[in-house]
What does this fold into?
Amino acid sequence: MFDERNPNETEIQKDDNSLEQAELNRENIKDFGCIRTTGERIIHCLTIIGQVEGHYILPPQNKTTKYEHVIPQLVAIEEDKDIEGLIIMINTVGGDVEAGLAIAELIAGMKKPTVSLVLGGGHSIGVPLAVSAKRSFIVPSATMTIHPVRMSGLVLGVPQTFSYFEKMQDRIVQFVENNSKITKERFIELMMKTGELAMDVGTVINGIDAVNEGLIDSLGGLSDAIECLYGLIDDKRAIKEREN
It folds into this structure.
């Protein structure tokens, strides 16, 4: 059909749309730490930084990732037909176990291509978050702390409390085993190691060790992670073309 609009009007509309998208990106970065890219392959960048905040609000001076912000974003990304892939940037000290595990389960259950990149640190509950993507990357200088489930504040010293801790820990171990190449036995061994952490049990591993242990898929930086995500997107496009 012939478009009767003035070419100049079309260009103005495109410019307005670009400005609107740029302003939306700025707001998303400021409020939620995420951005949607525009190009041949449209991907969404999600950051998990600071401390994962769960059911309790953390002090205002803490850098936090709020699960009530992340969960709706993941649903929207999965349902958005324009977004073809998701890259997750991780630099977290850990945080609320159930909130972190809920986010990790959502990412693992997505049909769209997902890639994670650990920068700085992927500690504690950051480990399941890192392995939840279809492909995971870590930079050589990053570290990951693997330790048992622990809780601060008032804890009842009764057998039921320790049973609860054990069951929660089993959920994490099972998730990591199902979403990485590390075995359950080796992960528990790293988790229960003594003599490495001054005031705790557990293990701190760097990027190279994380890959050697099978916890993370590959060693690499931003360009490697994006290239991998593009490859997953192209593979999915090819499958759709064959089906059509």
Q: What stands out?
A: The chain has a mean pLDDT of 87. The helical segments are 7-32, 67-79, 97-108, 126-131, 159-179, 184-191, 207-212, 222-243.
